[in-house]
Amino acid sequence: MSDPKTVKLVDESTQRSSTLPLVAGTLGPACIDIGTLYKDTGHFTYDVGYGSTASTKSAITYIDGDQGVLLYRGYPIEQLAEKSSFLEVAYLLLNGELPKPAEFAGFEHDVAHHTMMHESLKNFFQGFHHDAHPMAMLAAAVASLSAFYHDDLDVENPADRKLAAIRLIAKMPTIAAACYRYSIGWPFRYPRNNLEYVDRFLHMMFEVPSEPLQMSPVAARALDLLFILHADHEQNASTSTVRLVGSTGANPYASIAAGITALWGPAHGGANEAVLKQLKEIGTPDNVESAILRAKDKNDSFRLMGFGHRVYKNFDPRAKIIREMCHKVLAELGVSDPLLDVAMKLEEAALKDEYFVERKLYPNVDFYSGIIYKALGIPTEMFTVMFAIARTAGWIAHWIEQHETPGARIGRPRQIYTGHDVRDYMASDKR
Ligand code: CMC
């Protein structure tokens, strides 16, 4: 028997039915195309949190959550983590293929030559209080790029879209470092074109005018690896936000700024900051047991941060790589962090606890990344900013893919209305 190519849905009360085509991708389950459902049956579909809903077709990233598989353009994350660099991965996500040496050299050159911030953008930072959260500054500064580059931006023009992608990937570390330096009252550093992407960022973060910066190659490699692992993750909340905003025709800077704000939440990219704060609160391995009890208590809103994932129900392949790297980085940098002991005890206790096993809750990408960032001297408030620098490559690749897809429409979900039926306005003295 051949596979069914359609699914028939019948409303038994009205006998109205819809025969819906199945749409298959190259990997993963086929999807029921419900585009004609409302016309055929008069019903919408309802799927809180989009647990069963594909919002788009995409050729960029593939996840198999049951098997713990993550592919960028078909390449397993493990191979990219071992052999590639963040900038090469960014090229791959944007262009679909790994670059030949000359292509990569051109891309690297283009990125290096768009790293500067407009001098007026620097003044923009002065409007913030010194203790503003860097994610707030980052979102605002990136949105403000639309004010600097609007004259030469036609979102329908492929060359303009590409230029916007280069600008965003190039400027994000410059803006991120400025957010940090503003918060500690240091002068901004200009980007140095002779350095590689991650080294350039570390110099903008930590170099002081009075002496040259001696940066450990271990730190640069660790950060590059974290950037590779965070570069894309198909239709997660922030990428879906970028696509939804992009679907209105909004410019790429506004779309990416929206992605940054979506990323900030603790259920998403804000988890790395929340993990470190939670590990500090737990304090010592002795307190792990009570933390586990709180996480299981349905009357307590406390959750183990860095645990669980909507898609991964076996393990998060990124977490596996990061865990290994965490031990290596701390050893190579000679850092001994008691929080690592707390994290390891927490992981061990959760992995054998029935509550976590039953619900398939495993450490995710954010569980160990904060300990590495901390070892590199990056302050906790900057953790989600690090995530945003890396995810910019994925966000802009999706924004471009969306614009290149024929037949794209504005994203506009429906709802189940649960408010009042129609009623007459009541004068204030009668209420
Ligand atoms: N600690 C304790 N219980 C949890 C946790 C957790 N971290 N995560 C999920 N659960 C429980 C949840 O209470 C529910 O239990 P029950 O079935 O008894 O009601 C069950 O597991 C399913 O959880 P859910 O909230 O329906 O799952 P979701 O797919 O909607 O949420 C999640 C996924 C990542 C938001 C959630 O696991 C969570 O809040 N984790 C902590 C925050 C975190 O680490 N986020 C980073 C995600 S990875 C990086 C990224 O995407 O940016």
Total helices: the number is 18
User: Largest sheet at a glance?
Assistant: 3 strands, antiparallel
Cα distance spanning the termini = 66 Å
Helicity level: 40-55%
Helices and strands in order:
Elements: E1 6-10, E2 17-23, E3 31-32, H1 37-41, E4 61-64, E5 69-72, E6 75-76, H2 77-83, H3 86-95, H4 101-112, H5 119-125, H6 134-149, H7 158-184, H8 197-206, H9 217-230, H10 237-246, H11 252-263, H12 271-282, H13 288-296, H14 317-333, H15 338-351, H16 354-358, H17 366-375, H18 383-404
Antiparallel strand pairs: 1-2, 2-3, 4-5, 5-6
The structure holds carboxymethyl coenzyme *A.
Summarize the structure.
With 431 residues, the chain is mainly alpha-helical. The chain contains 18 helices and 6 strands.
Report on this structure.
It is a single chain. With 431 residues, the chain is mostly helical. The chain has helices at 37-41, 77-83, 86-95, 101-112, 119-125, 134-149, 158-184, 197-206, 217-230, 237-246, 252-263, 271-282, 288-296, 317-333, 338-351, 354-358, 366-375, 383-404, and strands at residues 6-10, 17-23, 31-32, 61-64, 69-72, 75-76. The protein is built from 18 helices and six strands. Strand 5 (69-72) and strand 6 (75-76) form a beta hairpin. The radius of gyration is 24 Å and the shape is globular. Helix content is 51%, strand content 6%. Residues 49, 236, 267-269, 271, 295, 303-310, 359, 361, 364-366 line the site of carboxymethyl coenzyme *A.
